Amino acid sequence: MELLMSIVIGIIFSVTIYLFMSKNLLRVVAATLLLSHGVHLLLITMSGLQRGAAPILSFDADAYTDPLPQALVLTAIVISFGVTAILLVMSYRTYKVHKTDDLEELRGSADE
Amino acid sequence: MNNIVILPIIIPFIIGAILIILYKRHAVQRVISGITMLILLAFSVFLAIYVYQHGTVVLEVGGWKAPFGIVIVADMLSTLMLLLSTLVGAACMFFAFQTIALDREKQFFYPLFLFLMVGVNGSFLTGDLFNLFVFFEVMLISSYGLIVHGGTGYQLRESFKYVIINVFASALFVVAIAWIYSIVGTMNMAHIAQRVAELDQAGALNIIAIMLFIVFASKGALFPLHFWLPKSYYGPPAAIAALFGGLLTKVGIYAIIRTFTLIFNHNLEFTHKGLLITIAGVTMFIGALGAISQFDFKRLLSYLIISQVSYMVMGLGIFTPLAVAGAIYYIAHHMIVEPALFLFAGVTQKITGTTDLKKMGGLIGTHPWLTWMFFIAAISMAGIPPLSGFFSKFPIILGGFEAQHYVISGVALLVGLLTLITMMKIFSQVFWGKQKHTEEQGKIPVGKLLLPILPLIALTIILGFAAEPMFTYSMGVAEEIMNPTNYIESVLKE
After folding, report:
1. ipTM attached to this prediction
2. Which DSSP string corresponds to B248-279?
3. For residue B242, which of B236, B342, B344, B409 is within the disulfide window of CB 3.0 to 4.6 Å?
4. Domain NADH:quinone oxidoreductase/Mrp antiporter transmembrane, which positions (chain B) (predicted)?
């Protein structure tokens, strides 16, 4: 299971890098969105995937799932949600002000 | 008594939230946020003195025992950084009162400012690696708001790149956290340090060390991840640029110092003597060359940040008590002088209406006080005794020669010379020469603008003349962080 997840995460990361390289503003925003999904999957996978037990530790339980990575992932998801919202607003304003969504045209002049 | 260490995080958070409600009444916002910064400053002075006298203070948040819950740790390094950050924050806040345009001020400027302080103070105080990530994000999201604040075309264009680079770096941070969790199975930094020591930093742990270094280096603007800084710091007004120049890069440097003294200190030949010193040398040289080539006040200062932060990394890389003490001293010096220079750029912009060095000149004739205050800050930055710049560079370079790192020490001396050249370039272009601003502009009073800079200038003089007690203090910090058993024991209570 971990191996399959690792391959999936690898694919997500490569798609992310491809999207980051594109010239379109919205695609770059989509890249950050996908990147955050990739790292969240990585975080939950690296702590070991377990099935069939609740994340509750008690003395008479013979199996339990580590609850910490799930708490971490939940926090990270909330943060990336906020960042994505800010990014969308910023890219919309950039588009409104500069009348373009082509990053090549948003490079700025050479003498700056 | 332990509970007080969380106040530097809680106070700006609550006040910032209240200020969101009061966003229509900017006079009230000014008074409340100004008082808040002064309270924070007074409190961090108290905390620094308390920790110096009584040792490390640890708070287990919510009563969860140390390796399981989040801990807030105030040791000497944290409290020193906290003191400096609130000092810089207060100076920039009072400068912003007079320079930020009213329409900008009304758009949630003060809440964003205070939330940035939450993130910065939290990053300095936390003892949990994931919590460090959370406070980094709090700081970064507020900084996204502040850097684009005002929404001019230039700001939008460059801030987008700034945000993308930081989002990518934060994603790498989570990757590094995932890896470190899979190896040592804990998030508490003291506990991580203990387990990494048991594993002798073998195998994949070196890769994690480099991964964390990449993350913090991109926040701290070290080569080859420095390219975003000059353009994005040029956009916002001087008060915000000064705040960023003083605080944000130093949070990255603090995180490097914390992780590479506490956790990854078992493979010095590879991480410290190899990686850190090489990167520091290249960064300081490239930053200094960039600064020399610029003819814009704010951009020049931004390149100066890049070259100056690498002195701290160099001091850490040499890793002798003398050099690390120098790095600590250098952080104190830099966090005082660099914002002061940015604020001076704001003052000259207010007078002449430009930041282009070629369009300024002869300010000494109309504003002599401004000129001589800038002169003190400039020669302090260049490292002329008896100001703080000299006494902070001296131990680093002396430590370098003593540890037989001749190349990096030579580069550091050369960069000191280049810094002097850039400072003299600003001084001769802006203050000497023919007067290029009009007579009306020459009559603009700047006394009130200089008032928030005055404490910073006074401190660089004090840190220079009172080098002995400050150096003793830095030496104490260096010995404490180079001997992490104290930190680990006070957190894990063994």
Report:
1. 0.93
2. HHHHHHHHHHHHHHHTS-S-TTTIIIIIIHHH
3. B342
4. 127-416
